[in-house]
Amino acid sequence: MITPKYISDLLGAPMAAVVQAEAIAAKATAEFIQEVGFSNTDLNEDGDFGTVRNVTFSYNRIEADGQARMTNISVPLLTVIPIPSLKVAEAEIEFDLALSQPNQSTEGGESSSGSKKRLPFLSKSLRLKAIIGKKAQEGKSNTTNSATANMNVKIRLQQAEPTIGMVQLLNILDSANKEE
Amino acid sequence: MSQLNSIIASVLSDINEAKAKADLTSSELAKTYAADKVLRYFPVPRINIENLEVEIKYAVNSVEEKPVDNASTRKKINDFIQVFSDETSVAVKKAVENVTKNNELFKEVSSVYPSKEWEASLKEKMADVLVKSFRPNNPSKTKDLALSGLKTAIPDLLPVVKRSSSMAIVPTEKGDFQIMGIDDDGKSEFLIDKKYVSEVDALKDAKALTTSLKSKKVEVTSVKTDEIKKVDIGALKAGNRTFNVLLGAKKFNDPKPKASLEKAIGVKAEFLNQPRKEVPNWLKASKPASANVDPEKFEEDLTLKIATEKVISERLPLLEQGINDIMSKNAITVMNVNVDSESIKNAQPETVSTIKFSLSAQDFTLLDDDQEPIL
After folding, report:
1. Mean pLDDT score of chain B, rounded to an integer?
2. What is the three-class DSSP state of B174?
3. CB of B131 within 8 A of CB of B145?
4. Cα B298 vs. chain centroid, distance in angstroms?
5. pLDDT at B326 over 80
6. Which of B11, B18, B45 sits opposite A19 (nearest CB)?
7. Cβ(B183)–Cβ(B167) under 8 Å?
8. Per-residue pLDDT averaged across B231-244, rounded?
9. Which domains are delineated in chain B?
């Protein structure tokens, strides 16, 4: 039998999962940058990316006097290949819950996931629990064992504003873009 | 069964808690990112709730008028209690005055008690008890609590007389105690001319005198008349002790004061030696409390308590009525609902209803005075 959980736990779990999933994706991106964009990473101290892996090519450059001169250009590899960076721009979570109403005597209490108590003014308030349920359909009776939902929640999430961290990284790479 | 507002408040609170869980995950990730040499340049994943819609189906169990217990109601109740306490303390004072003026057991305090100050203290004490007894949803319980509270609190303000059928320990206006000889009607016959600081000492002497009376060892040795104080002063020899007694103004001019005092002492001795039979409780209950006083045992005289409790009992229905009136004028309609999915399945279809509400990003953001996000 499924144990009813506090609604905060049921709503919080998918939201936290979105955040965690994005972190996993970011980790993969970070590993890609490190492995593809830099060399000798193992020899360097913590915090140092190692040596930027450049791509060098030569071409005939026409000078002001009309003479062609062989010129070498070196650019960081990361600036010429797309970095696989994924982020969740928007997420939509929808689920149906079958609420269970506690007795007055068991109202309030602690969150199921932690020991933190509710705010003092909420301590005596009602706390509802729920299980994931099946949406009731008009004219159809629920023949399965699943509970019939009486609460529907739709949450649309979006990415919060980016921090300046990524901007800084791009600036570093940009300043490393040089001609030899 | 809960009120609909509690249900919505609970859901809103859970939504906030859910968002806090997501933020907590971001916060923990931030530490991991900071420790990683590449990830430290990445934005820490952080989500905002752009929009949230909730739809809850519930069954209406009942709709009722419920009194609102808010600051405004409390003020009205408090004001009413002050007026009620004021009026009741005046009525109690009047009843107490009536007892102290007419009952000789209290004649030694009747010149100073009850005073205006006493009335003010009574009012204060009464208001305190009534405020503590107030139960917003149960005026009847308020009345019961007030009655028991006042029954406990008011006796502190009443002088205590301990008496047998022939003697009493009476309080004096200075807080001392004196031994009073009383007749069958509770009238003062004599007052022992000694002030006791402690009631226990007075009781000890009163019991000793009673024992001497019973064994007929009390003798009136003399009675003199003090013309200046207009009082007859007698001397009672009880065993090896002598008690001076004041016979009081009404005995003054008695042509034979010694004979009168001897007669009184003789009657008391007689009465104490009469064989006593056990009076059944129903018979005791059929007579006034004063008629059931033990001839030897000193017990608290309840006249003042009974008089005050009578006034309180007569007035408390007015308190209940007044609180009822105030609360009914400040009532709101409350919907008691059931959101338990199983109960809704079995509920009458016409009682099932739905509430929808949505929250936008702004509802999860702290805004400054210009409605700009602070964080």
Report:
1. 86
2. coil
3. no
4. 27
5. yes
6. B45
7. no
8. 87
9. 2-65+337-364 (no CATH), 69-160+301-329 (no CATH), 161-299 (2.30.29.80)
Q: Is residue A163 scored above 70 in pLDDT? A: no
Measured in angstroms, the CA of A9 and the nearest CA of chain B are apart by: 6
* Residues contacting A79, CB < 8 A, separation 6+: A173, A174, A177
CA A82-A86-A87 angle, to 5 degrees, is 140
- Per the listing, tokens 């045992």 go with B297
For chain B, say whether A91 makes contact (Cβ under 8 Å). Answer: yes
Q: What is the dihedral of CA A160, A164, A165, A166, to 10 degrees?
A: 80
Q: How many residues does chain B have?
A: 375
Write the DSSP string, B302-331: -HHHHHHHHHHHHHHHHHHHHHHHHHHHTE
Whether the CB of A44 is below 8 Å from some CB of chain B: the reply is: no
How large is the average pLDDT for residues A71-77?
Answer: 90
> How far is it, in rounded angstroms, from Cα A133 to Cα A150?
8
Nearest to A125 among B6, B42, B56 (CB): B6
Q: Hey, which residues does B66 pair with through a beta bridge?
A: B332
Q: Pick the closest to residue B58 from A135, A132, A102, A150 (CA basis).
A: A150
Residues of A in contact with B351 (CB under 8 A): none
Q: Which residues of A touch B18 (CB under 8 A)?
A: 7-12, 15
Task: Decide the pairing of beta strands A148-149 and A134-135.
Answer: parallel
DSSP one-letter code for A44:
S
Cα–Cα distance for residue pair B327/B344, rounded to 1 Å: 33
Nearest to A16 among B22, B50, B341 (CB): B22
> Do B44 and A163 make contact, defined as CB atoms within 8 angstroms?
yes
Percentage of chain B surpassing pLDDT 70?
Answer: 93
Nearest to B206 by CA among B192, B185, B219: B192
Pairs across A and B, CB distance < 8 A: 182
Average pLDDT on B203-208 reads 91
Q: Is A124 on the interface with B (CB under 8 A)?
A: no
